[in-house]
Amino acid sequence: MTLRRILIALAAFLMCLPLAAQYRDDQFKRDAFTQTYADTTEKTAADTSQLFSFKEFFGGLAHKRGASLKTLTMGSTVFVGGNQIYHKQYWKLPVIYGGIGAGVYGGIRFNQLYKSTGEDRFKTYSTLSYVGAGLVWWGSLMDGAVCYERGKYPNPSKSTVYSILLPGLGQIYNGEFWKVPLYLGLMAGSVQFYIDNNIQYKRWKQIHNQATTTEEGVERPPQSGETAKYYRDTYRRFRDYSALAVALVYLIQVIDANVFAYMQDFEVNDDITMHLEPAMMPVEYAATPAVGISLGIRF
Predict the structure, then answer these.
(1) Looking at the domain assignment, is residue 21 inside a domain?
(2) At what angle do helices 156-165 and 69-76 cross, to 10 degrees?
(3) What is the mean pLDDT of residues 244-266?
(4) Among 127, 192, 236, 254, which residue is least crowded by beta carbons within 10 Å?
């Protein structure tokens, strides 16, 4: 009789669980499957399943919906000035278009003068004009990232775009200044190895061509063709490895900036607790209501 009373009391207790406990369990399950971590605005949420959305980009330019920084940056690489239109900073458009147009025109014009006169200074001027146009284009993308959601810090999208446009800037934005010399040093070292190996590759390539040529009157090098070929291929392989190292360091610093921007507000403390309480599985998650125990661990 006593056992029966205990079972009845326990059943009644489980059927009358606190609503707060049931709500927390239900809310946890909903959040676990519906929470998104993509960049969103108050007007609309960005679709993370697409790399780029024309609808989102042009809808943002028309100010009919919000757009993520990823979409704006990718779209503005082709449709120059898109970032400035999205932020309604129309006064910047003449500066951007004028700078790019002047640089391209100068590059073409000086290149024509170089071809007609053969003076090296015109070739230098042409190169500098094209570089100037590229810097204005690059500056328009950087300006768009700076102006995007200024009040939100840290913004993973901003950190990522910063690192793409200028290696190390994403780490500075995240406040991790000590990483900048590390990444820049690795990239500078890889670039230096690439330059040195490329010089040696071209040198041994020329030696190989001289050693294996059939033309008469060409001075033969002291190295044999096989030796020159071995060193040529070796330095070419080292040059390619150096280029790969530059690309890997660049990619790693972009990923690092994005991940650590997301983790800026990650809570880390010494609170390690376990919470045990009765719980009920709602009908929406099971064919019939189920009663059990909810275990929560905080670490």
Answers:
(1) no
(2) 30
(3) 89
(4) 192
**DSSP line for 5-68:** HHHHHHHHHHHT--HHHHHHHHHHHHHHHH---S-B-SS-B--TT-S--HHHHHHHHTTSS---
**117 and 57 together in one domain:** yes
pTM, rounded to two decimals: 0.68
> What is the pLDDT at residue 277?
73
Determine the average pLDDT of the residues in 8-37. 45
Phi then psi dihedrals of residue 37, to 5 deg: -120, 10
User: Are 154 and 264 spatial neighbours (Cβ–Cβ below 8 Å)?
Assistant: yes
Torsion of CA 254, 189, 241, 135, to 10 degrees: 50
- The structure tokens 């209501």 sit at 289
Distance CA 93, CA 80 (A): 9
**Looking at the structure, do residues 138 and 200 belong to the same domain, yes or no?**
no
Is the model's pLDDT at 39 over the cut of 70?
A: no
Nearest Cα neighbor of 44 from 72, 62, 66, 61 is 66
Residues 146 and 198 in one domain: no
Task: Find, among 76, 256, 252, 258, the residue nearest to 160 by Cα.
Answer: 258
**CA 69/CA 141 separation, integer angstroms:** 10
Q: What is the C-alpha separation between 281 and 192, in angstroms, rounded?
A: 62
Which residues form the domain of 85? 38-152
116 shares its domain with 175? no
Q: What is the pLDDT of residues 126-153, one digit of tens each?
A: 999 999 999 999 999 999 998 888 776 7
Report the number of distinct structural domains present in the chain.
2
